[in-house]
Amino acid sequence: MSTDVKIILLVEDNRGDIRLIQEALKSTAAKCEVVVTRDGMDAMSYLHQEGEYTNVPLPDLVLLDLNLPKKDGREVLAEIKADPKLKHLPVVVLTTSLNEEDIANSYDLHVNCYIAKSRNLPQLLKIVRGIEEFWLETATLPVKI
Fold first, then answer.
1. Residue 144 placed within a domain
2. Which InterPro entries does the entry link to (predicted)?
């Protein structure tokens, strides 16, 4: 894989949201590969490069839903930010929750950004394109270890 291709780990269990986010990212300027995991356990296996994910490259950006099966996004975020090998990864919570406690707790856990998903398709596409533009084109990301 070329080094100019950015890898986005999308941790999302809703098939419709996965499809929409993938479509939105296809229409952007940045060259990116979207890797999807559908629950928190699978996401952590990917990030720890375990099992079927042995030797996969670490992502440049993690898009994380909070409400996930097996291990929820709050636990995933806490584990990422507590792990010396992963804590530098930018994590954007992309969720339907507007719960003030979820927002505050996510920032307490050092999330890089918290964004509420829109159920309005054009607005969701705009949100995803904005994430891609900022995090993959504008921001300077840390060097992968």
1. no
2. CheY-like_superfamily, Sig_transdc_resp-reg_receiver, TCS_response_regulator
